[in-house]
């Protein structure tokens, strides 16, 4: 999945096997340390892994950090079937229920219409004033500009 140029179209580069393995180890460490993170996404009917989804802490500084991000990445066979939205809703339940977050964010390149559609279906809102240049993407790279979406959790008042 991480080596597929179409899947990685909105990222600076595809990942090698070693880079993908390193990412998996980083994700495992985060899960172990926090008890939440990014989880493998499997089809219920076949058990096939089609990607990952869940919660992550951005590893860069920006005007909205510190924050917890909801994210997903699916292999092409998982596209267009509602898996990202369904799994992200479950991750939001964890974020606002078990973890007790007040807000989650999500971000992507401005041109990533598929991910932006998932963010909208989740009820996340976009304010152009929040958009930013991703510090992990080279200056001049057309993928540098990112859009930021936000979603507040249920009120804890009473």
Structure characterization notes:
The structure is a single chain. By secondary structure, the protein is an alpha+beta fold. The protein contains three helices and seven strands; from the N terminus they run αβββαβαβββ. Strands 4, 5, 6 and 7 form a four-stranded antiparallel beta sheet that branches. A hairpin with a 6-residue loop joins strand 1 and strand 2. The radius of gyration is 15 Å and the shape is globular. The N and C termini lie far apart (45 Å). The model has no long low-confidence stretch (mean pLDDT 91).
The shape, in one word, is globular
Mean pLDDT: 91
Number of strands: 7
Give the fraction of residues assigned to helices.
25-40%
Largest sheet: 4 strands, antiparallel
Unreliable stretches covering 5 or more consecutive residues: none
Report the oligomer. Answer: single chain
Strand content: 15-25%
What string gives the helices and strands in order? HEEEHEHEEE
Task: Report, as a whole number of angstroms, the end-to-end distance.
Answer: 45 Å
Give the number of helices.
Answer: 3
Radius of gyration: 15 Å
Structural class, please? alpha+beta
Outline the secondary-structure elements:
Elements: H1 17-34, E1 38-42, E2 49-56, E3 69-74, H2 83-98, E4 103-109, H3 113-121, E5 125-126, E6 132-133, E7 145-152
Please provide a brief summary of the model:
The protein has 158 residues and is an alpha+beta fold. Helices cover 27% and strands 24% of the residues.
């Amino acid at each position: 999945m991480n080596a597929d140029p179409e899947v990685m179209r909105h990222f600076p580069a595809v990942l090698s096997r070693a880079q993908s393995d390193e990412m998996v180890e980083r994700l495992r460490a985060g899960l172990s340390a926090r008890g939440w993170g990014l989880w493998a996404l499997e089809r219920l009917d076949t058990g096939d892994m089609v990607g990952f989804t869940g919660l992550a802490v951005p590893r860069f500084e920006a005007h909205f950090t510190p924050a917890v991000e909801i994210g997903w990445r699916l292999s092409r066979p998982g596209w267009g079937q509602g898996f990202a939205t369904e799994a992200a809703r479950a991750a939001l339940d964890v974020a606002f229920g078990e973890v007790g977050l007040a807000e989650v964010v999500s971000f992507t390149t401005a041109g990533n219409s598929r991910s932006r559609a998932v963010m909208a279906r989740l009820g996340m809102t976009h304010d152009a004033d929040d958009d930013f240049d991703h510090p992990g993407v080279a200056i001049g790279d057309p993928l540098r500009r990112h859009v930021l979406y936000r979603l507040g959790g249920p009120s804890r008042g009473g």
